[in-house]
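Cast an eye over this sequence plus tokens and walk me through the fold:

***
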Amino acid sequence: MIITIVGAGRAGSSFAVALRNVGHHVRLIHHDQLDQIGAPDVVLLAVPDDAINEIARSLPERAPYVVAHVAGSRGLGELANHARVGYLHPLAVLPNAEVGSTRLLGALYSVGGDPLVEQIVATLGGRSIHLSDDQRVLYHATASVTANHLVALLGHVATLADAAGLSLEDFLPLAVQSLSDVATLGVQTALTGPASRADMATIDAHLAALPESERATYVALANAAFELAERRRVASRV
């Protein structure tokens, strides 16, 4: 398959490497090089979400190729009036082309539109799921929480570790253990710590020791842990 990718950032570069590695003919261009699209089977837009519609409208209206994007929360309506449209969003973190291209192989993809996008996913060894537009927004929000908010949480850990005279690296094994427990035991069973046992004295001591700038984050997460612990208690009584 001949594929032109518009957008040479982390997502576009990751797709370019992955698609080439499975045998596609790929051209990677920047958003201001639309005159270099060539004659592909698919034009894949790997541009910022807010730019999808503008770029799509800049392409010839009666183009014979499929115009698709890789955004998680946007649908077919972003692709103007092209006859053949689609989207494929990978449930994977793409920090750079080397790592991202590997993670695209065998990933889960939210897909829609022209059947050609599912063929692309199949060549990558991926699994396709079909969601409604409303589902896709919540799906993408969940993906953002899973990936982005987890990183933000570890930024919170890094700040606290530094204040305690330690480093993030000292606490990463603990994070890995917790993720492993969630995977093997489930969220409710994996929860430990003072919030899980309603130990307010320890939580108050934590708040007194925390840098003031980090207290709101701690409280928000402690409240989430309280709610999870309460669901566990209710479930245990059923």
Notes: The chain has two domains: 2-130, 134-237.
